[in-house]
Design a protein that fits this description.
The complex is a heterodimer of chains A (359) and B (474). By secondary structure, chain A is an alpha/beta fold. Chain A contains nine helices and 15 strands. In chain A, the strands form two sheets. In chain A, strands 1, 4, 5, 6, 7, 8, 9, 10, 11, 12, 13, 14 and 15 form a 13-stranded mixed sheet that branches. Chain A has a two-stranded antiparallel ribbon with strand order 2-3. The chains are: A alpha/beta (359), B alpha/beta (474). Chains A and B meet through helix 3, strand 1 and strand 14 of A and helix 14 of B.
Amino acid sequence: MHPAIHDYADRLRERVRRCVDGSLLDDAEFGLWACGLAELQAKLNPVFGALSRSAVASFQGSSNWRAIPAIPTDSFKELDVTTLSAAERTVVFESSGTTVGDRSRNFHDGASVALYEDLAAFGAQWAGLVERRRVHYSLTPDPSEAVRSSLARMLGVFVARFGGEGSGFFGSVDPDGLWRTDFEGLEGQLREANGSVWISGTAFQYVHWADSLAERGMKLRLPSGSLIMETGGYKGRSRELGSSALAALISENLGVRASEVLTEYGMCELASQAYGQSGPDGEALLKFPPWARVRLVSPETGAPVADGETGLVQVVDLANVASAVAIQTGDLGVMAGGALRLLGRRGTAPRRGCSLMAA
Amino acid sequence: MTTLPQLFLADLPDGAALTPTLIRESCITLKRNRIQWLARRRTQEMAELLAYAAERWRRPEDAFRRRALSAGAAETGFSRETLGRGLDAFFHKITVESLMQWVAQDLGDPRRLDELCGTPSELRAGRMAIARAPDLLVQIAAGGLPNSTLTSMTLGVLMRSAQFVKCSRGASVVPRLWAHSLADLEPKVGGVVELAAWPGGSEALEQPMLEEAELVMVHGGDETVTDVRRRMPPGKRLAAYGHKISFGFVSEDALSSYMARRTAERAAQDVAAWDQLGCLSPHLFYVEEGGVVSPEGFAEQLAQALAAEETAAPRGRIDDAAAAAIKQRRDLHHLRGVHFEVQHRDATTAPRGAFFEPPRGATRVWSSEGSSAWTVVFEDDPRFRTSCLHRFVYVKPCGNLMEALRHADVVREKTGVVGIGAGEGRATQLAQALTAWGVPRICPIGRMQDPPAGWRHDGRPALGDLVNWTDWEQ
C-alpha cells in the first residue's frame, strides 16, 4: 500500500474510533476526508484517475464529496479498480457470481484488510449489535475456508471479537464452490444454548434452513433477545423474498420476534456495511455508519434526486482506501428520514418483449 | 366509437371474477360456435375478411386504429409513433395474396384447408390430402409486443379454428381491438374468439383451457415455456416460441461513404422498432474492418441516426430498473473508454507499422443527453455482448463474418435473425456462411423487425406447425 494511503488509513481508524464514541462527523468534515482520499486515489488508481479526469465537476482541493465520480460495481468485473500494485494484492474479495468473468474482484493487502476488519467491528458497535456478549453462530463457512468472501471475513471478526464461548461457523464450501450449512449441527448447539444467541447468514441460507425445518416438520424457539442477521442477496440460489417476508419467515421458523431480525447491506466492492430492520410493510430501512454516505441519482438523468424519490444508490465510503471512495451499486433505493430503503435490482413490473435481455 | 361492446372476457372491467368453470364453459362454447358458424367457410373467404380488416387498420381515421394508438400507447409503454409504425408494418403484410400464398407455401396448395387436393407429384402417386385446423387453438401470449399475438390470431381465423387467447395483464388491448375489428365486420368471428388477461402461471384458470385445447401455442421465456410444457395434458400438442437474440453484420462493401450512412439509418430503424424489445431486434452490429468508413465511424453514424429516430418516434417510457441498468452500463463503458485512453495514449498515437499491433479495447459511448432514450457503445472487443435493450446497441469491429460468428457462437442456438448490410455480390456469400452456421432467418439490415407474411418463425413453418393432416391414398 502506498505510504500516503497507509497514513490515511491510520488516521481514519482513529477518527472512526471517535465516531463510535459519539463524535459527530459533519458534512464538511466528511467532505474533506472523502475528497482527500479521492485525490490520492486519482493519482494511484488508474481506473479512478481516468474517471476523475473525465468528470465534469471537480472535487480537487474541495470538501464537495457529492462531486466525486462513482465507479459502477460492474467495473470490478472487468477492470482492476485498485490503488495496489500487482505484487501488493495479497487478498481478493470476490462477489458470488456464477462464472469467473461474472464476479467482481476487489483487491486488498494486509493493511487494507486490517482496516476493513477494524471498521467492520466499529460498524457493528455503532449499530448497537454488540451491547451484550452473545454466542455467535455463523451460517457461512469459516473465513479461512472462504478466503475470497468479504462477508465470511467480517463474520470472522464478529465471532472472534464479540462472540461468546462456543461461537463458530456452520458452513462449508463444497467441491463446486457452493456454500453448504450444517443446519442440524447448529440446531444441536442451539438446544444446549442458554442465553440469547446471534446468528448470521445470507438470505438464501435462511430460506434453505426454513425449507429444511419444514421438511422435518420442525420449528425452533430461540431464547428471547437473540439477534438474527441476514445479508441480502439470493443470486438465484433459492426463491427470493422481500426483506419483510424474509423477516416473517425467520421469525416463524426460528421463534424470534420480527424486531430481532436485522438486515445487513454490504458487498465486496464496499468496505462499510449498512444495517436496518424491515418494517411490517416494507423493505429494511438501512443506515450506514457516519464514515459512509449514500447519494441517490436519477437513473434517467444522473442528477441527484429529492428525498422520497427513487434513485440509483451510490455510496461514498471512506473505508474503501484500496479501491475507490465512491461506488455506484446497481440497486435502486429511496431515502426516507435519513435511511435508505432498497428497492432491489429488478422492478416489480413484468418484463416486456421477447428478446433475451442482459441482467 | 365511444365504448366497445363487451364481447370478450378481456372487455370486462378489471377485477371481474374469472373462474375455472367460466374458462371451461367458454372453451366449449367456442368449439360449438365454430362447428355451427365457421367450420364450413373457405380459406379465400377468410383471407378476404382479414385483408379487408387490415386495410381498414391502415387508414388513419379508422376507429380501431385510433383507439389502439391512444389506449395501446398508454398500456404498452410504447410511444404512439413506435406503436403506429409497428402496427403499420404488420397490417401492410395482411393481404389476400399474402395469406393465400402463406397457405400454399406451408401446405403445398392454397385449397389445402378446404378440400382434399394434391400437388402434381402427390397426384401422380395417387395421393391427396387435407390439412385440418385444430378445433380449439389456445394461445398464451407474451407481454409487450403485440405482433406475434396478432399473427397467431390471424392464422387462427384464416384456418377457422376457435381461439382462446390468454394475454398478459396489461398487454391485451391491441389483440382485443384486432378481434373487435374482425367481429365488427363478421360477428360470427367474435363468437369463435375469446380473449382474457390474467397474471401468467395461474394454474387453476389455465388448466381447463389446456385440457379443452387441441393445440397450445406459447410465446415466452424458457421458464414460461417449461412451465406450460409441464402442465400440458397428455396427447395435446404444444407449439412454443422462446425468447431470442438477434444481431447484425455490416460488410466492408457497405461501408462506402454513401452506403455507410444509409446502412446506419436502416440499422437505427431496426434498433428503434418496438424499442428493441422484439426477438428480432439487434443487440449488436459486427462491422467489418477495411471499409472507407471505419467501424467506429459507423457507430457514430448509428448514434446520429438513433438521435433522429428519437425525434421521429420517441422511445417509450421505461421503469426505474430498466433505466438503472442502462445508466450502469453506460457508466461502465464510459469508464472503460477513458481508462483505455489513459493506458494506451502513447500506443494509439504511435505509427502503425508491420511489427506493431495496436492494442484492442478502445471504447466509446454515444448517448441521448439527459435521458436514457438511446445509447450506442463502440467496443473494440469482438466478444458478443447482450444489450440491456430499450434502444441500447453495441457496435463491434471484426475482421470478417467468420470471426464475428466465432464470437457469436455463445448465442447461436438462441439467434432469431441476422441482419446483413452488404452489396449484392457479397450478400449471397454471407447468406451461405450464415446458413452453414445455422441461423433461422437472414435479412437486410433495416428489415430485421419486419419479417414478411409467411416467414418461418424460429425456423418453423408458422401455419404448417398448427395443422393436422388427413391423407387419402387412392
